Amino acid sequence: MAGKVFFSVTMSLDGFVAPDAVPVAYVFSPEGRNDPRVQRWMTKWSQLQGWVFPQRWFRENLKLGEGGEEGIDNDIARATYERTGASVMGKRMFDGGEAAWPQDAPFHTPVFVLTHTERDPWERPGGTTFHFVNDGIESALLRAREAAGDRDVRIAGGAETIQEYLDGGLIDEFTVTLAPVLFGAGIRLFDRVDPDRLALNQTRTDASPRVTHVTYTVVKR
Question: Bacterial bifunctional deaminase-reductase C-terminal domain location, by residue (predicted)?
Answer without folding.
Answer: 4-206
